[in-house]
Write a structure and sequence with these properties.
226 residues; alpha+beta; 4-stranded mixed β-sheet; 5 helices
Length: 226
């Protein structure tokens, strides 16, 4: 989720939060781990090792859930200060936090770029195990500096590739940041990339065709005349 707030004429705050998904996943993993541990602990460990294995798996799943809750949910906070010409960055999470600064005057523009990511998932059913491929469109929101360096200040994932390619890709908080900084927003959507690729193929085909024509003309000039 993206949020923006203009503090005063010289200070602007921009936040990107990733909380709901990781918190939900961590809680579910913790609950499932606790259930498996409880089942394993109620068994007789002296007769079989199955109960011990179930308890160990439950403990591992619970630890994963705790680790997700501690490290994954976060808020990326950026404070743009025109008074000291700095961008203050802070990654807020339970453990540990990160800090950093960037030169505000070196930001040339805001870049909005899209990319495709394919994820494979296995599902078990009565007919056996099935693998499904899910395609996601990830929209990256980045600051680009004069030296070509980029930092990502936010992102958004969408499963509907058609909506992601045809709909608007620049959210309102990013537009407000662009207005505050007085810089442009450049978009590199999947549609734009497809158009560029088609143009490059067309240009290569035209050049190859022109090259063949020139070669044929050169050969005709070299033929002896009777």
């Amino acid at each position: 989720m993206l949020k923006s707030k203009k503090i005063d004429e010289d200070i602007f705050e921009f936040k990107h939060s990733v909380i709901a998904g990781p918190v939900f996943g961590g809680i579910i993993a913790g609950i499932l781990g606790g259930v498996f541990m409880n089942i394993g602990m109620q068994g007789n460990w002296t007769e079989t090792g199955e109960d011990m294995a179930i308890a160990a798996v439950g403990g591992g799943v619970m630890l994963i859930g705790v680790a997700v809750l501690l490290f994954v949910p976060h808020i990326n906070a950026y404070t743009f200060n025109r008074q000291n010409n700095q961008i203050k960055y802070e990654k807020k999470r339970l453990l540990p936090n990160k800090h950093g600064t960037y030169p505000l005057g070196q930001v040339s523009h805001i870049l909005v770029s899209q990319s495709l990511r394919r994820r494979r998932r296995s599902r078990s059913s009565s007919g056996g195990s099935r693998r499904r491929t899910r395609t996601e469109v990830i929209t990256h929101y980045m600051l680009e500096f004069n030296n070509g360096a980029r930092i990502e200040i936010g992102r958004k994932k969408r499963r509907n590739t058609i909506m992601a390619m045809t709909g608007g890709v620049t959210p309102k908080p990013l537009q407000e940041l662009s207005t505050f900084l007085g810089i442009n927003i450049e978009e590199m959507t999947l549609k734009d990339k497809a158009s560029e690729a088609a143009g490059a193929v067309k240009e290569a085909f035209t050049s190859a065709k022109a090259g063949k024509t020139d070669s044929a003309e050169d050969q005709s000039e070299e033929l002896p005349r009777s």
